[in-house]
C-alpha cells in the first residue's frame, strides 16, 4: 500500500510515516524554495492522507489491480496542481497591448476635440495676429509668445464648446455621428463632463495668468455663446432655431476671432493704440460670409437626426438642395468681393497674391460643388470638409491683404 501511494507523488518519497521531524522540516523548506504556496498546501494534504492511511485501509479495495485510494490521491493532486498553475502564473507584460490602448485613447480624444474646428481656430488666430505686424522687427519672441498665449487659451475653450455640444447631443449623434466617443460609448457621460469642465477652467486660468483683457472678453463671449448654443435648458439650446444658431457661429468665427485676437496683439502685446485697418475690416466681412456658410452647411448631412429630435435647421425647413446651393452662391460672392479688394490694392504683390489666390479658390469651389451627390450623406460630408479646407486657405491669404 505504501508503494502505491508513494508512487502517485514522486517528490514525497523521502517522507515516511513516523519519519524524522527535522528531515520533514528540511524537505518542506526545500519545497518552499522551489514551489508556490499552493504546492506546499498540496504537500501538507498529502502527508495528512498518508498518516491516516493505515487506519483507513479497510475502506478501500483493489479494483482491476489499482487501489481506489490511489485514484483519489491522483485526482486530488492533479486538480490542485492545475489550479495552482492557473492562479500563480503572473500576467505577462505585453507592450503591444499598452501601445494599442494608448493609441485608442489618443484617437478617441482626437475625435472628441473635432479636429477640423481646432485647426480652424489655430489658423485664424495666427493669421489675424499677423495683421498686427507693421514692420519686420515686429516678428520677435514677443510676437510668438503673444500668439501662443492666444492659441492655447482659445483651443482649450474650443474643446469646451465642441465637447458641451456632444454632451447635449448624445442621442442625436447616435444617428448623425455615431463615430464620436460619447455617441459610441467609448466615453461615459461623466468622462465628457470632466473633460469639458477641466478645459474651460484651464482656458480662464490661462487668460488670468496672461492678463490680457481682449483675450479674456474673446474667451468669455465664446463661452457664453457656445453654452447658449448647446446646453438643453429653458430659453437656451439656440441650435434648435436656425437664425439663432447661425448668429452664434457668425459672432464667434467672424467677429470675436477677428477683432478680439487682433486687439490682443495690438494692445496687450505691442502696447499700441487700437486701430481698425483695411485688412482687418476685410477679414471680418469675408469671414462673416464664410461663417454663415459653415452654420448653414453643417446641418445638411445631419438632417436625418435633426428631424427626429425636432431641430429646426434651415436644411430641415427648406430642404438640402436649396441650402446647398445657397451656401455655394454666398461663397462665390465672397470670393468675387475679395477679387475686387485685391485689384484695388496699391501694393503689387498683394494684388497678385490675393487676386490669383481667390480666383483659384472660387474655381475649386465651383468644380467640387458640381460633383456632389445630394442623395449621399458621405458625399455631402466630404464637401463640408472641403469647405473647411477653403476656410483654412482663406486665413493663409488674409495676411497678404494690404
Automatic annotation (TrEMBL):
Where is it located?
A: Plastid, Chloroplast membrane
Q: Which domain of life is it from?
A: Eukaryota
Keyword terms, alphabetized: Chloroplast, Membrane, Plastid, Transferase, Transit peptide, Transmembrane, Transmembrane helix
Q: How does it sit in the membrane?
A: Multi-pass membrane protein
Q: Gene3D superfamilies under this entry?
A: UbiA prenyltransferase (1.10.357.140)
Q: Does the keyword Plastid apply?
A: yes
Listed CDD domains:
PT_UbiA_HPT1
The Gene Ontology terms for molecular function here are:
prenyltransferase activity
Q: Transmembrane stretches, by residue range?
A: 115-133, 142-167, 187-208, 215-235, 241-263, 275-297, 323-341, 348-369, 381-401
Q: Which GO terms describe its cellular component?
A: chloroplast membrane
> Main localization of the protein?
plastid
Q: Which PANTHER family match?
A: HOMOGENTISATE PHYTYLTRANSFERASE 1, CHLOROPLASTIC, HOMOGENTISATE SOLANESYLTRANSFERASE, CHLOROPLASTIC
Q: Return the similarity comment.
A: Belongs to the UbiA prenyltransferase family.
**Could you tell me what this protein is called?**
Homogentisate phytyltransferase
Q: Which organism is this protein's natural source?
A: Flemingia macrophylla
Amino acid at each position: 500500500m505504501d508503494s502505491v501511494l508513494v508512487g502517485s507523488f514522486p517528490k514525497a518519497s523521502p517522507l515516511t510515516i513516523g519519519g524524522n521531524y527535522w528531515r520533514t522540516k528540511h524537505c518542506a523548506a526545500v519545497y518552499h524554495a522551489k514551489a508556490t504556496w499552493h504546492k506546499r498546501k498540496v504537500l501538507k494534504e498529502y502527508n495528512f492522507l498518508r498518516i491516516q492511511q493505515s487506519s483507513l485501509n479497510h475502506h478501500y479495495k483493489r479494483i482491476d489491480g489499482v487501489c481506489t485510494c490511489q485514484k483519489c490521491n491522483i485526482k486530488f493532486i492533479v486538480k490542485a496542481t492545475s489550479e495552482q498553475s492557473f492562479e500563480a502564473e503572473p500576467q505577462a507584460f505585453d507592450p503591444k497591448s499598452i501601445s494599442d490602448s494608448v493609441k485608442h485613447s489618443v484617437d478617441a480624444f482626437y475625435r472628441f476635440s473635432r479636429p477640423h474646428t481646432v485647426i480652424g481656430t489655430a489658423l485664424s488666430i495666427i493669421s489675424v495676429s499677423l495683421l498686427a505686424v507693421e514692420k519686420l522687427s515686429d516678428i520677435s519672441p514677443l510676437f510668438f509668445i503673444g500668439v501662443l498665449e492666444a492659441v492655447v487659451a482659445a483651443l482649450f475653450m474650443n474643446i469646451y464648446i465642441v465637447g458641451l455640444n456632444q454632451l447635449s447631443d448624445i442621442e442625436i449623434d447616435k444617428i448623425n455621428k455615431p463615430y464620436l466617443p460619447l455617441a459610441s460609448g467609448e466615453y461615459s457621460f461623466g468622462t465628457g463632463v470632466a473633460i469639458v469642465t477641466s478645459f474651460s477652467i484651464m482656458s480662464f486660468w490661462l487668460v488670468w495668468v496672461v492678463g490680457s483683457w481682449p483675450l479674456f472678453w474673446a474667451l468669455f463671449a465664446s463661452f457664453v455663446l457656445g453654452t447658449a448654443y448647446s446646453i438643453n435648458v429653458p430659453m437656451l439650446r439656440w441650435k434648435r432655431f436656425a437664425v439663432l444658431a447661425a448668429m452664434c457661429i457668425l459672432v464667434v468665427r467672424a467677429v470675436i476671432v477677428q477683432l478680439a485676437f487682433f486687439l490682443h496683439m495690438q494692445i496687450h502685446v505691442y502696447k499700441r493704440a487700437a486701430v481698425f485697418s483695411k485688412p482687418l475690416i476685410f477679414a471680418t466681412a469675408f469671414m462673416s460670409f464664410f461663417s454663415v456658410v459653415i452654420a448653414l452647411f453643417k446641418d445638411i448631412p445631419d438632417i436625418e437626426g435633426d428631424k427626429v429630435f425636432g431641430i429646426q435647421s434651415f436644411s430641415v425647413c427648406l430642404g438640402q438642395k436649396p441650402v446647398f446651393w445657397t451656401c455655394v452662391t454666398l461663397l462665390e460672392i465672397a470670393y468675387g468681393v475679395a477679387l475686387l479688394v485685391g485689384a484695388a490694392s496699391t501694393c503689387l504683390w498683394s494684388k497678385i497674391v490675393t487676386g490669383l489666390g481667390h480666383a483659384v479658390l472660387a474655381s475649386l469651389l465651383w468644380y467640387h460643388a458640381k460633383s456632389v451627390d445630394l442623395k449621399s450623406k458621405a458625399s455631402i460630408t466630404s464637401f463640408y470638409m472641403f469647405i473647411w479646407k477653403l476656410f483654412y486657405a482663406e486665413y493663409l491669404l488674409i495676411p497678404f491683404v494690404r
